[in-house]
User: Which sequence fits this backbone?
C-alpha cells in the first residue's frame, strides 16, 4: 500500500477534477509513483453500448486527447521525472469503472475531488466520489474543491472511537508520518464517566504510532465528525485520515460523510 507505486486520478475534465492534481503530483513525487489519469466515457445504463451523449467516436477521441494531453503536460511541468499514463474507458457506471480500472492496474491510491458544500456545479465528479467512498477497497484521497492547497503533510488528524476499529488507518498514517515527518493528532469525543475509556482508546492508538510525535485530545461533545472538522480548521491540519465506516446498507455513515463534505483539509479514506 505505502509507499505509493501507482496513483489513479479520475477526471471528467471539470475544474473540480483538475483541482486535485497538485496533491496527486506531490504524493507521487514523495514516493516516485506513476500517475494514471483516467477518463470514463459514459454510456446508457440500459444500453451500455450507446454513449450517453451521442456523437461520432472521433469527436470524443479528439476532445479527450486534447484534455488528457493538457493534464499530462501539467504533471510533466510540475515533476519531470514522474511517469504518467493516460486511460480512457467506456462504461455506464463511472464509479464502478474507476474501481475496476484501479484493481486491474494494481493501484495503491485514488485521488478524487468532491464538490463543495451547497455547490451544485461539478455534481458528476462529486457524486461519483461519494459513491466510491462507501465501497472503497483502495485508499481514496478525497479533496473538497476550493480548499486551501497543502505543500506538505506536517499534521495528520485521526478520529478514534475505538482503537480496535482503526488499525489499517493507524498503520497507513504511521507510514506516511514517518516518511514526511508528520505530527499525528488523535481525537476522541466523550463526556462524564466515558472520558476515561476514551483516554484508554487514545493510549492504545498511540502505542501503534511508536516513534512519532502524537498529540491526544478528548473533546467534550456528541459528534466526533463535527468536532474533527472544527479542530482541523482551528489547527490548520494538513490531512484527515478516517475509515469508511459504512452503515448496514453499505452507505457512508453520517460521521464519515460529514467529514468528507465539510472538511477544509484533504481526507484520506482507508478501507479495513
Assistant:
Amino acid at each position: 500500500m505505502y509507499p505509493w507505486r501507482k496513483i489513479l486520478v479520475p477526471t471528467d475534465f471539470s475544474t473540480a477534477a483538475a483541482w486535485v492534481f497538485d496533491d496527486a503530483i506531490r504524493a507521487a513525487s514523495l514516493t516516485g509513483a506513476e500517475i494514471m489519469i483516467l477518463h470514463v466515457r459514459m454510456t446508457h445504463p440500459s444500453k451500455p453500448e450507446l454513449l450517453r451523449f451521442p456523437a461520432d467516436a472521433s469527436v470524443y477521441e479528439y476532445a479527450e486527447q486534447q484534455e488528457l494531453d493538457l493534464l499530462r503536460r501539467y504533471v510533466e511541468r510540475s515533476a519531470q521525472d514522474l511517469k504518467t499514463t493516460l486511460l480512457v474507458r467506456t462504461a455506464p457506471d463511472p464509479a464502478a469503472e474507476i474501481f475496476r480500472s484501479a484493481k486491474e492496474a494494481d493501484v495503491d491510491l485514488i485521488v478524487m475531488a468532491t464538490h463543495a458544500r451547497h455547490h451544485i456545479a461539478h455534481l458528476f465528479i462529486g457524486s461519483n466520489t461519494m459513491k466510491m467512498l462507501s465501497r472503497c477497497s483502495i485508499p481514496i484521497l478525497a479533496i473538497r474543491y476550493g480548499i486551501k492547497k497543502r505543500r506538505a503533510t506536517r499534521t495528520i488528524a485521526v478520529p478514534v472511537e475505538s482503537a480496535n476499529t482503526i488499525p489499517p488507518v493507524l498503520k497507513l498514517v504511521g507510514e506516511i508520518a514517518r516518511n514526511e515527518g508528520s505530527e499525528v493528532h488523535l481525537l476522541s469525543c466523550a463526556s462524564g464517566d466515558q472520558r476515561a475509556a476514551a483516554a484508554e482508546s487514545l493510549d492504545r492508538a498511540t502505542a501503534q504510532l511508536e516513534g512519532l510525535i502524537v498529540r491526544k485530545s478528548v473533546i467534550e461533545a456528541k459528534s466526533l465528525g463535527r468536532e474533527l472538522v472544527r479542530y482541523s480548521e482551528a489547527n490548520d491540519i494538513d490531512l484527515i485520515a478516517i475509515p469508511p465506516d459504512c452503515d448496514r446498507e453499505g452507505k457512508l455513515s453520517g460521521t464519515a460523510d460529514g467529514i468528507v463534505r465539510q472538511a477544509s483539509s484533504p481526507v484520506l479514506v482507508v478501507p479495513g
In short: The beta strands are 6-10, 34-42, 84-91, 109-114, 140-144, 155-159, 183-189, 214-219, 239-242, 267-269.
